[in-house]
């Protein structure tokens, strides 16, 4: 009953406009609060939109990074492919020149192989290649880069092979000095690193610093005409019946990334 009476009184006062002053007072008090609540709501909404935009921008940035990484990967692949094609063209051109100069019977086919290194060989006298029997590689295949002899296939599996470098003490080859008319002959044995030694040089044979030494092919292992190295020093001792010469390879084998394996 009490609430009913109060309600009737409020309706009566409101009908005759007697509550307008009180309503105006309340509105005066509530307007700043309502405005503040509205501003807060707008700011919260703007904040949510801002963070959503930041998330969208971040996602777009990640997408751009992914696309850039993909493009860079494609460019690198194209660069590697271009380098391989150039290397192959140069090798084919050189082979044609060698065939023309030798009258035939040189190299007829070879395979491009990637150098995988050989961390198990602490002497650095061998390298692992990514080609094996499934690629037609056979034990004894000559490994070259350009007209430079790199080594010899000594171990092989289906998908990989191991090449002993010409600087390995396990590798020897018959050679001759292409820089002199008498073509001084000898036998080269590896000395690790980029060095090799040419031995069994007759005292009467002529050889000097700067001469180029190439394979003769007389050992039946290495094809003739491949560059083995350059003479750095000639050793001739009265106590020794034969002379010897220290050679340095023209190629730094530690920096090789690709080589060619002769198939025939």
Automatic annotation (TrEMBL):
<comment type="similarity">
    <text>Belongs to the MreC family.</text>
</comment>
<dbReference type="InterPro" id="IPR055342">
    <property type="entry name" value="MreC_beta-barrel_core"/>
</dbReference>
<dbReference type="InterPro" id="IPR007221">
    <property type="entry name" value="MreC"/>
</dbReference>
<dbReference type="InterPro" id="IPR042177">
    <property type="entry name" value="Cell/Rod_1"/>
</dbReference>
<dbReference type="GO" id="GO:0005886">
    <property type="term" value="C:plasma membrane"/>
</dbReference>
<protein>
    <recommendedName>
        <fullName>Cell shape-determining protein MreC</fullName>
    </recommendedName>
</protein>
<keyword id="KW-0133">Cell shape</keyword>
<dbReference type="InterPro" id="IPR042175">
    <property type="entry name" value="Cell/Rod_MreC_2"/>
</dbReference>
<feature type="domain" description="Rod shape-determining protein MreC beta-barrel core">
    <location>
        <begin position="115"/>
        <end position="262"/>
    </location>
</feature>
<dbReference type="Pfam" id="PF04085">
    <property type="entry name" value="MreC"/>
</dbReference>
<dbReference type="GO" id="GO:0008360">
    <property type="term" value="P:regulation of cell shape"/>
</dbReference>
């Amino acid at each position: 009953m009490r609430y009913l009476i109060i309600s009737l009184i409020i309706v009566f006062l409101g009908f005759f406009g007697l509550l307008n002053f009180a309503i105006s007072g309340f509105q005066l008090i509530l307007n700043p609060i309502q405005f503040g609540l509205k501003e807060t709501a707008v700011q919260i909404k703007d904040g949510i939109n801002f963070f959503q935009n930041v998330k969208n921008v971040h996602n777009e940035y990640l997408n751009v990074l992914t696309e850039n990484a993909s493009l860079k990967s494609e460019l690198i692949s194209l660069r590697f492919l271009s380098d391989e094609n150039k290397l192959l063209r140069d090798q084919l051109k050189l082979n044609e020149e060698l065939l023309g100069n030798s009258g035939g019977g040189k190299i007829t086919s070879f395979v491009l192989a990637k150098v995988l290194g050989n961390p198990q060989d602490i002497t650095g006298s061998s390298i692992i290649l990514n080609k094996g029997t499934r690629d037609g590689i056979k034990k004894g295949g000559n490994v070259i880069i350009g007209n430079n002899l790199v080594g010899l296939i000594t171990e092989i599996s289906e998908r990989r092979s191991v090449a002993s470098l010409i600087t390995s003490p396990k590798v020897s080859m018959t050679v001759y000095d292409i820089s002199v008319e008498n073509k001084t002959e000898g036998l080269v044995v590896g000395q690790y690193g980029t060095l090799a030694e040419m031995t069994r040089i007759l005292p009467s044979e002529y050889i000097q610093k700067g001469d180029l030494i190439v394979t003769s092919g007389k050992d039946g292992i290495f094809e003739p005409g491949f560059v083995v190295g350059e003479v750095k020093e000639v050793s001739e001792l009265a106590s020794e019946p034969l002379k010897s010469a220290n050679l340095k390879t023209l190629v730094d084998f530690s920096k090789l990334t690709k080589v060619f394996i002769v198939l025939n």
